[in-house]
Design goal:
The protein has about 425 residues and is an alpha/beta fold. The chain is globular. The longest helix is centred in the middle third of the chain and has 24 residues. The protein has a 6-stranded mixed beta sheet.
Length: about 425
């Protein structure tokens, strides 16, 4: 019997899940063996994590279970964490699987591959700033978002009880967010949307006036990926909500109670969120002898193959892809991950057929930032708009929502994807506005 070609994909984020969906749909389990390795049991689209953190989105309704999804699309799912790569044997090494009690469920083991695609995503970059790892919350995954929401609700309850005891009490929930890119800005706005709804769910005397949110950015302005005019519009919208926006403010240290700035200032905060950049996971540094950047990203060729091994590809945030003529590598965005998955899918088919691989071509469709229900701003780029077009309001909100709909269709197919879009609209009407547990 001829041995099946085994394609292993590490990481079930947007890029990895879209890739195994397409491969499974094309080959099924009869012709090739498609394997997804992912440490989590469920997938949620990472750009939604700020809504999960604020309680505006119930992740239980939007998450995708890998076990049911793999059965539907013809690939296999292994729960595990990549520990090493044996390139000579063409095997990956998975770390032991440990349960919550510290009991080893599955020992360290190996899985062979003919082709390997690494799509492990990114983690928050603390830039070595003192105290960040111990005293800040991050929004890297579902568990982190749930942890933030739980602590947020605890502090809201504390303030609500204090106000009941003394209506004139000077009590607030103080939140400091470091980093004014899309994640930091969207979280700041979403917090006010959530706070405005808390009075409907048991916290009778709590509203958005009890929030003190400070957004801290080291650069000269917020949202550097957007045109200055749109960034200024977002800046003004945040301040109108009540957010204190500090630009050109570098953080020197984070303590258990405050964010310390380089000029000697201290911003007291009950919750401290770090959203100031991303990097690859530390375990990816030099893994399997592959070339990596100082930020632990895997260096890839224009074909998205790693520089040291033509049978290993990297896509999404964990890949450092600098195309010919470009000044910088491709930015870590959802649209880049989606396009990389499509290119590697084509290149895997070409490699197995003995055809030359095609280079990755990045199409920058612009950037969009949602300020919850208050506003959406962004810019579109491409042939359809003749270059670059600034958009705001309803059009921007429609385009922003369309990005998630496209992701749903990519991983579920047209029929179920459109069905889930419809169910999402119904849930907004019949479900509570906030997830409070």
């Amino acid at each position: 019997m001829t041995k099946k070609t085994q394609i292993v994909v590490i990481g079930g984020g947007a890029a990895g899940l879209e890739l195994v969906t397409r491969l499974g749909k094309r080959f099924g389990r009869e012709r090739h063996d498609i394997i997804l390795v992912e440490r989590n049991r469920t997938h949620i689209w990472k750009p939604l994590l700020h809504e999960v953190a604020a309680g505006s989105l119930d992740a239980n309704l939007d998450e995708v279970g890998y076990r049911s999804h793999c059965h539907r699309w013809g690939y296999r799912y292994f729960q595990g964490t990549l520990e090493g790569i044996d390139r000579d044997a063409r095997e990956i090494i998975l770390a032991p699987l440990i349960d919550e009690d510290g009991t080893e469920l599955i020992g360290r083991h190996r899985i062979r591959y003919d082709y390997l695609v690494i799509a492990t995503g990114s983690v928050t970059n603390d830039f070595g700033t003192k105290g960040v790892r111990d005293n800040c919350l991050f929004l890297d995954d579902r568990a982190a978002a749930d942890r933030f929401r739980s602590r947020l609700l605890d502090h809201c309850l504390r303030v609500s009880r204090a106000m009941i005891a003394d209506p004139h009490a000077d009590e607030y929930v103080r939140i400091a967010i470091v980093g004014a890119g899309a994640t930091g800005v969207e979280l700041a706005a979403e917090l006010f949307n959530a706070a405005a709804a808390l009075s409907y769910y048991g916290l009778e005397v709590f509203d958005e006036r009890r929030l003190k949110v400070t957004l801290i950015e080291a650069g000269p302005r917020i949202l550097p990926a957007l045109p200055e005019k749109l960034a200024q519009a977002a800046h003004e919208e945040l301040e109108a909500l009540g957010v204190t926006v500090l630009t050109a403010t570098k953080v020197s240290e984070v303590t258990p109670n405050a964010v310390m700035t380089a000029d000697g200032g201290a911003i007291e905060a009950d919750l401290r969120v770090w959203a100031a950049g991303v990097r690859g996971a530390e375990r990816m540094a030099g893994i399997g002898g592959l070339e990596t950047t100082p930020n632990h990203q895997l260096v890839v060729l224009p074909t998205l193959q790693t520089t040291a091994d033509e049978r290993i590809y990297a896509i999404g945030d964990c890949a450092s892809c600098k195309l010919p003529g470009a000044e910088r590598p491709i930015p870590p965005r959802a649209q880049a991950a989606h396009q990389m998955a499509a290119t590697v899918y084509d290149n895997l088919l070409r490699a197995m057929a003995g055809k030359p691989l095609k280079p990755f071509v990045y199409h920058d469709h612009g950037s969009l930032v949602s300020l919850s229900r208050y506003s959406t701003v962004g810019s579109l780029m491409g042939n359809l708009v003749g270059g670059r077009m600034a958009i705001e309001g309803r059009l921007a909100r429609f385009v922003y929502a369309s990005l998630y709909r496209m992701h749903l269709i990519a991983i579920h197919g047209w029929l179920k994807g459109l069905g889930l879009v419809l169910v999402g609209h119904v849930n907004r009407i019949v479900r509570p506005r906030l997830k409070l547990h």
